[in-house]
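Chapter summary example.
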Amino acid sequence: MRPGSINNQWWSIGLILILMLPLSPLLAQPSTPAELLDEANRVRSQNPDKLDQLLAQVKPHVDSLSETQQANFEYLSAYNTAIHGQPQLAISDLEQLIQRIESNKDGAGQQLQRVSIRAKGTIVNLLANSKVDDWYRGLELIEELHQLVEPLSSDDQLFQMAYINTAIFYNHLEQYSLGLPYARAVTKANTSIRLQCFAYRLMLEAQLALGQLSVDSAEFSEGKAVCEQANEELPVQIFNGHQAKVYIDQQQYSQAIALLNQNLPVVESIGSKALISVFNSLLAKAYLETGALNQARTHAQKTLGLLEDYGNTESRIRAYEVLYQIARQRNQPAQALNYYEQYAQANQTYLDDIHARNMAYQLAVHKATQQQNKIELLNKENTLLRTRQILAQTEAENTRFAVLFLILAVLVLGLWLYKNHTTQKRLKALAERDSLTEISNRRHLLQAAKYALEYCKNTRQILGIVVFDLDKFKSINDRFGHATGDWVLKQVVATCQKVSRQSDIFARIGGEEFCFVLPGCDKEHCQNFAEECRRALEEVVIEEDGHRIRVTASFGVTDTQSSGYNLDKLIGVADKAMYNAKNKGRNQVVVATAQPATA
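The structure predicted for these 599 residues follows.
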């Protein structure tokens, strides 16, 4: 499971709409349409029912309002539509408002332009939580927003909100390195304490996902102090959850338990099931690592109970993993297998969602680049047409220049096609390859293995599976750092590739877990191949800071004669054999016993 934030879509819409602009002055008894409109702007995030009433009172008198007030009324109406669960309709209304303002740029005053900026920021926030087809529009609006607020002072809240919306958008797309600078800039700006609290929330979310936080990071104490001053208890507890996660990642389990137990009653009083489940799942993980299995089981089961109506969150995955480990340690194989299957399914779904977001972002960027290329090509074609009209006055000159510009157009088009082709190849490689080792990833393995199995089944050929996991790899990361661990993984891949065939499918399917799919090989050949890999890995010598690192692995082997042609079963049987090798002392090959064959 990758490091990540307590990422809930529901808060990003709600809080950012709350913070769209400074609140209007409090009006004791609003009576005129203008005063009612100001009151609606003031209460819009605090009392949705009152907002409905105020907008209904203003609506009959819209014609008596100024042009800017009418634009504000349309903005608040679209805002009201969004918070009542119709974001797509709200986006459509806001787009129409922006179009009307920008169609009359010469006549639109500064206040109308600010309404347009405000509407674009709200659309960006709504698009961050919508279908991926709309993310391209989000990227367009971000660029427009930054162009519009560039002339403004960095102390202007519209400027700051453009940065906040940008950070929300990138964080939601898992592009944390892009969103982090914008959130950090707002934390250092001269702004309201409430907006600063929200900026810290986005910044810490991105830093946690990027692995930039330690338990002593100043951002934790700074963010908590700011949000406490703003009377915002929810983000304070989210920061405590982040800090506990870092404690666990750094194996400081007792500190994590103390922090979580101290604040769990406060979180339960807030009533956020998502955050309560985060605290319980982290407690389950910390208790497991300290050997307190009963407490770990209790908190893991609480987590699953809270998340019955939620999807595959990190908390659910963490809870299933803890229950699986407890069942293993208590020698309850049936329960362990059940929890492992649920953990694997939830984890794979979660990773697929992250992969889909990354791919969607890459496709949106690619679409933007493609659109820009089309615009450039159209500009060149327009230039060519104008040139032809001028050159038509002289027949000889017309022919010569027409040929010249046609060649230029062909070159530009060829360059664009080449660039488009290379981009598609790069996106395909990103989708199929593990970025660290440059071998196949789990997704590509499953696709390729499915075709190989179908072919072998139709041609009555045998197919073998070899799964192996590096022994005590975590200690290498802990002692020498992740950079050394990454280098070790690359050496393992290079070593195994030397003894494998070109037709074999080789993939990294987990942190330090790998899989070979060997068409045409029975268990005996697979065992020999696995033994050859094992011996080759034993001979790998790695020196780091005067220490010699010995790399070994445990292997599990099966084939279609023993386990049938079902891919999930083949991998599961080989994986179980690999764990048997671990339990027998590691650094060995275990061949799975015959299983009932399935289609």
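To summarize the output: The first strand starts at residue 440 and ends at 441.
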